[in-house]
Each structure stands twice: as structure tokens, then as C-alpha cells.
């Protein structure tokens, strides 16, 4: 038996009151019946339902539990921020370790609960049977766990979940390096608890990564209260991880910048002193090492970068201080590699937080089970894509060549030429992508508008977060350019200002292009034949992948366009939003890939429920035998069948005639 719900096909009387939704129940032989899913209520039942206390109302209690879980997540998130930035809590390693273990272990337990009690409850049910046979449990059926269903819509597209797997795997590598450094280093305080922390982080990251990729379509409705609490805890854990590693990354960059700015000046001063007859001799490496150590120590203790002492001081306990304050030791040992790993972990935390929030919202919602056969073959239409793909490949080749040029200039200590390479490539890429977005907006005007499906909400949330990061970055860059020009009182080079202007415009146009294009479908004969805009979408897809690679590499190097006299506040802001810049390019490519697959497929996409494309597709069902209450001429004349689907743009009421059959359900 196959059940297909049609919630958008409804019955209205002459007063416009909507009757019960229609459910079609079909047997394997093709016979179709119609009946109402709701049970008629007596007047007493309706009065009791109306005056029922809210504590006994399922929807009210679900809302209240959701409210409490939101408050819990808010408190935990704010508390995690305090733990990370407060010097008092950082110095008390036991409190920091306790909070660390609570966050990760609770998340691990919830994911395991979902696996063993909701997704794969067979093991638990077998244990209940074993206890029943041992006469420990008398009524095993009351203890059984029900396996949850998988709904048609998931939390995120396939490409987004693949990105979560990629970034999560790289994040596990970073945790593994931290674990290795703790095992091999004698400076690791309390190695047992530190090792336990990193092991919990690896286990949690891997389990959550598997949950996101393999179980994004599950509906945790069999234990809503626990599920809502657990999902909000996962949101808090991911936000805390995101903030923790953003803070660690920005502190490492500030220390590196401080070393670069004061190291050479201090070495020059020592060299001048030694050349005039001083007996104190310091090598170049010794001075740079001591400047870095003192800068990091001063930054960790006060939250600000202090000037170094006149004479370098050696401190052999630098590593233990960093570990005790929760810093990431791998950033000091592995350089740019650890910076890349940290960036990937930040992206993973951002994706996971958004996915878990969408999962939390879906708990308790009504889902319609869509029965369909799994396709054994996947067909991809690559027509009208070759020109855009090869144009994007040209930009990819240009980007890799520029990265090689930058490496050569950096090796030759020609920093101005290296920065010029970054500036020219940025201007070329952003201007080309901006022109492509404008042309694409013009080309897709022939497509048809359709409401987007609910699963795309997570894409829009992540896209807006990336746009916010880009806007903040461009605004700080423009303000830095204006301030630097005022300080120097000269015209100066305007390339950074031009790059920031083009970047800002391209981000805005591309976000608008993605948001409107996700609601367009290729349905008309003209659109199906010509596929307007598909070449542009293909080009922008490859271009955003290219920008993702280039900006990941660029983030490991000195920031282009930012003044060396940038205030410390602006420096923190730049380093905080830098992961969002890389994430925006990655997620834009995800959105374009999903648009490329769905917009030009010619399929009608339902907006949250299993529907039929229109009234005329429902006529064969209405002509089938429909055993139900007979309809008198009086009741039939006062009822109309409304097709509320998108294929009836006029929304005209269609009266029931004899051609539809002489029976229908009336309540």
C-alpha cells in the first residue's frame, strides 16, 4: 500500500472555510480511495479541546521545551566566550578542563544516544529481549525503542555535507597534531587531562561529521525533548569551537606580526651596539626567538601586545604557559600548515552549527513520507556548460601561476612586488566575477519563479553569514585606506581601494544572484531549449572554487591592502572575519553547484510537502472509485475544489461536476 498526501488540494465551502485535507490511499492494484485523516469530534470534545490547559497541549509544551533549550544554548555560548577570554579562568586550568570535557563528552553522549536509541535501535531492543528472557523485565514492549523515519528533505545539500566531511577530517588532523605534541613534549602540564581533552575532541568531531553526512534526513520525533536539548548543545559546542580557534588563530597572527615589526629593529639596535664595541653578542635567530617569546607572553597575560624590554630575556617555560592558557601549540610549531588546518576546523564548526540548528527546527514538525525507488543511475546534464567551464579553468590557471609568482618574490625578499601580485589577481578575479553576475542576472530573466524548498534555508543562513564577514572586511579595508591616506597626506597607491570597491560590489551582486536564482526553475519550452544563464553559472562555480583556493593561500600570508599602522582593534576584527571570507567562497560554490543541478532540470520542486504538480494531475485520482459519504445536490453546490498549486496561477475555484464522480468526503 502506498500513501501519498496532498495537503495543497483542499475542499472549501461557499463561506471560504477550509475543510479537511485529502489523503489518497492506493493499493498495489491501482484502486484509489479517498478519506479524511481527521476524526470527527463531538461538541463536548471540542469544548474540552478549547479550554485544555497549555501544560497538556503537545504543541505548547514543545514550544516551551524549545524555548528552554534556546536559553540553555545562549547561556553556554556566552559562558564559553567568558572562559576563553577571561585571564582568571584561563589561569585556573581545572575549570577550563572541566568545561572542555563537559562540552565534548555531552555532545558525544547525545550523538551515541541518537545512534543507539533512534537511528539503529536494534542493539538496544535485542538487549531488552535478553533481559526479558532473563526475567529482569516483565513487559519488554514498553521498553522498545522505535526506529525513526527519514524524511525527504535533509539538512543541507550533498555538496555542503561533503564540505563538512572534508573540513572535519582536516580538523581531526589538527587535533591529532596537538595530541602528538603533548605526548612528545615535556612541557605539557597535566598530560593525562590534556590528552583526554584532545581525544574527546577527535571523537566528537568524527562522530558529528558522520552524523551530518549520513543522517541529515532523520526526524528525531520519538524523543523530542532530549533531541531538542541535544541539538542545541551541539550548536553551542560548534559555536564555542569556532570562537576558540578564531581566537587562537588571531593571537598567533598578532604575535607573528609583532615579531615582524619589532624583530628587525631590535636586531639592528643590537648590531649597532655590538659594532661600537659592546661585549654582548646575540645572533639574529636568538633575538627573533626572544622577541617572539616575550611578545606572546605579554599578549597572553594582558590581552595586548607590549613593547619588548631593551635587553632580551630568556624564558624557558614559554610552552607550558601557552598550553595552560589553552593556546594551540601547533600554530607555533607547524606555521602555515597549522594555519590552514585551523581555518578548515573553523569552517567545519560553522557548517556544523548551522546544520544542527536546522535539525533542531525540524524536530516536531509534520513530515510527509515520500515513497520512491532509489535511482541506480545518476544523470547529469552538462549541456550549455562547456564555455563557462573552460573560462573558469583559465582563471584557475592564472591563479596558480600568481601563487607561484608570489612565492618567488617572497623568497627574494621583494615584498612590494609580492603584494602587487595579490592586488592585481584580486582585482582581475573580482571584476570578472562582478561582470559575470550582472550578465547572469540579465540572462535568467526568462526563467520561471517557484518557491524554494525548506532545505535551502540552511544555505541561505550560511550565505548571509559569509556576506556579513565580507562586508566587515571591505569596510575595515576602506577605512584603513582612508586613514592611511590622511596620515601620510599624499595621494599614494589607490589599488587597494579599487580592489575593496570591486570586492564589495561583487559580493553583494553575487549574493543577490544566488538568492533569486535558487527560486527560479527552467520550465517553459524556451527555457528548456536554451537554458539561459547556465554558462554564467558554470563560470561562477569554477571561479568561486578558484577564489576559495586563492584566499586560503592568501590568508597564510600578510594581508593585502591593510595599513601597517592598523589599530589593534581592527587587527582583531580582520583576523576574526578572515575565516568567513574563505567560507563565503566555498559556500557560494556549493550554492552554484546546487543551482546548476536543480534549476535547469525542468522538475517541479515541492515546497516542504509531497504535492502533485496541479489539479489536472489529480483528475485521474478523482475519477477512481472513492467510497465515502454521498453528496447531495445541496451540499455539492456549496462546495468548491480549489487547486492551490503553482500550476494554477489564476487560483480559480472549480466546482464539482459529475465527471469527477458522484461521491466525496464531507465533514
From TrEMBL:
Q: Which InterPro entries does the record cross-reference, listed alphabetically? A: Otopetrin (IPR004878)
State a single Pfam family of this protein: Otopetrin
> Which key words are in the record?
Cell membrane, Hydrogen ion transport, Ion channel, Ion transport, Membrane, Transmembrane, Transmembrane helix, Transport
Primary residence: membrane
GO CC annotations on file: plasma membrane
Q: What is this protein called?
A: Uncharacterized protein
Q: Domain of life here?
A: Eukaryota
Task: Note the coiled coil stretches, chain numbering.
Answer: none
Q: Where are the transmembrane segments?
A: 63-87, 99-120, 158-183, 195-213, 225-247, 387-409, 421-442, 462-482, 494-516, 536-553, 573-596
Q: Which family does the similarity line name?
A: Belongs to the otopetrin family.
Q: What is the scientific name of the source organism? A: Diploscapter pachys
The membrane topology noted for this protein in its Swiss-Prot or TrEMBL record is:
Multi-pass membrane protein
Where found, per UniProt?
Cell membrane
Recorded GO MF terms: proton channel activity
Amino acid at each position: 500500500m502506498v500513501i501519498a498526501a496532498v495537503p495543497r488540494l483542499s475542499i472549501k465551502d461557499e463561506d471560504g472555510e477550509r475543510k479537511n485535507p485529502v489523503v489518497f490511499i492506493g493499493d498495489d492494484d491501482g484502486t484509489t480511495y479517498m478519506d479524511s485523516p481527521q476524526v470527527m469530534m463531538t461538541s463536548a470534545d471540542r469544548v474540552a479541546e478549547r479550554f485544555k490547559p497549555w501544560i497538556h497541549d503537545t504543541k505548547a509544551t514543545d514550544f516551551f521545551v524549545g524555548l528552554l533549550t534556546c536559553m540553555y544554548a545562549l547561556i553556554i555560548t556566552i559562558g564559553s566566550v567568558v572562559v576563553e577570554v577571561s585571564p582568571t579562568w584561563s589561569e585556573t586550568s581545572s575549570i577550563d578542563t572541566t568545561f572542555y570535557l563537559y562540552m565534548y563528552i555531552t555532545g558525544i553522549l547525545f550523538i551515541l544516544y541518537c545512534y543507539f536509541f533512534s537511528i539503529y535501535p536494534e542493539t538496544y531492543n535485542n538487549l531488552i529481549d535478553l533481559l526479558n528472557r532473563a526475567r529482569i523485565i516483565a513487559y519488554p514492549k514498553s521498553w522498545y525503542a522505535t526506529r525513526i523515519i527519514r524524511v525527504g528533505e535533509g539538512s543541507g545539500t550533498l555538496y555542503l555535507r561533503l564540505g563538512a566531511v572534508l573540513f572535519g577530517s582536516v580538523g581531526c588532523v589538527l587535533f591529532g597534531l596537538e595530541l602528538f605534541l603533548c605526548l612528545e613534549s615535556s612541557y605539557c602540564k597535566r598530560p593525562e587531562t590534556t590528552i583526554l581533552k584532545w581525544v574527546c575532541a577527535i571523537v566528537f568531531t568524527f562522530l558529528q561529521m558522520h552524523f551530518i553526512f549520513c543522517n541529515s534526513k532523520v526526524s528525531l520525533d520519538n524523543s523530542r525533548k532530549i533531541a531538542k536539548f541535544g541539538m542545541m548543545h551541539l550548536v553551542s559546542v560548534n559555536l564555542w569551537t569556532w570562537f576558540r580557534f578564531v581566537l587562537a588563530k588571531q593571537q598567533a597572527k598578532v604575535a607573528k606580526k609583532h615579531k615582524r615589526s619589532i624583530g628587525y629593529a631590535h636586531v639592528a639596535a643590537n648590531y649597532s651596539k655590538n659594532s661600537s664595541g659592546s661585549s654582548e653578542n646575540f645572533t639574529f635567530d636568538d633575538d627573533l626567538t626572544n622577541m617572539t617569546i616575550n611578545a606572546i607572553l605579554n599578549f597572553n597575560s594582558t590581552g595586548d601586545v607590549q613593547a619588548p624590554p631593551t635587553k632580551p630575556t630568556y624564558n624557558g617555560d614559554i610552552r607550558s604557559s601557552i598550553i595552560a592558557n589553552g593556546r594551540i601549540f601547533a600554530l607555533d610549531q607547524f606555521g602555515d600548515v597549522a594555519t590552514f588546518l585551523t581555518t578548515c576546523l573553523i569552517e567545519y564548526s560553522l557548517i556544523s552549527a548551522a546544520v544542527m540548528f536546522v535539525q533542531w527546527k525540524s524536530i516536531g514538525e509534520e513530515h510527509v513520507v515520500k515513497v520512491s525507488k532509489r535511482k541506480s543511475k545518476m544523470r547529469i546534464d552538462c549541456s550549455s556548460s562547456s564555455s563557462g567551464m573552460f573560462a573558469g579553468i583559465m582563471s584557475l590557471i592564472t591563479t596558480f601561476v600568481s601563487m607561484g609568482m608570489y612565492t618567488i618574490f617572497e623568497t627574494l625578499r621583494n615584498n612590494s612586488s609580492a603584494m602587487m601580485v595579490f592586488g592585481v589577481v584580486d582585482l582581475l578575479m573580482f571584476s570578472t566575477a562582478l561582470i559575470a553576475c550582472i550578465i547572469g542576472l540579465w540572462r535568467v530573466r526568462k526563467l520561471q519563479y517557484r518557491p524554494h524548498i525548506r532545505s535551502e534555508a540552511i544555505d541561505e543562513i550560511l550565505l548571509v553569514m559569509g556576506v556579513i564577514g565580507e562586508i566587515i572586511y571591505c569596510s575595515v579595508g576602506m577605512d584603513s585606506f582612508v586613514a592611511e591616506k590622511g596620515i601620510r597626506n599624499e595621494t599614494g597607491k589607490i589599488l587597494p581601494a579599487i580592489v575593496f570597491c570591486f570586492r564589495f560590489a561583487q559580493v553583494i551582486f553575487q549574493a543577490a544572484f544566488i538568492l533569486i536564482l535558487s527560486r527560479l526553475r527552467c520550465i517553459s519550452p524556451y527555457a528548456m531549449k536554451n537554458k539561459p544563464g547556465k554558462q554564467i553559472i558554470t563560470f561562477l562555480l569554477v571561479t568561486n572554487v578558484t577564489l576559495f583556493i586563492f584566499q586560503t593561500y592568501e590568508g597564510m600570508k600578510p594581508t593585502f591592502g591593510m595599513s601597517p599602522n592598523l589599530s589593534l582593534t581592527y587587527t582583531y576584527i580582520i583576523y576574526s572575519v578572515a575565516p568567513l571570507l574563505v567560507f563565503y567562497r566555498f559556500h557560494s560554490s556549493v550554492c552554484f553547484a546546487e543551482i546548476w543541478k536543480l534549476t535547469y532540470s525542468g522538475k517541479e520542486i515541492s515546497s516542504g510537502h509531497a504535492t502533485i504538480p496541479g489539479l489536472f494531475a489529480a483528475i485521474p485520482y478523482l475519477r477512481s472509485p472513492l467510497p465515502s459519504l454521498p453528496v447531495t445536490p445541496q451540499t455539492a453546490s456549496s462546495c468548491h475544489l480549489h487547486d492551490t498549486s503553482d500550476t494554477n496561477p489564476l487560483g480559480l475555484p472549480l466546482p464539482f461536476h459529475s465527471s469527477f464522480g458522484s461521491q466525496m468526503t464531507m465533514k
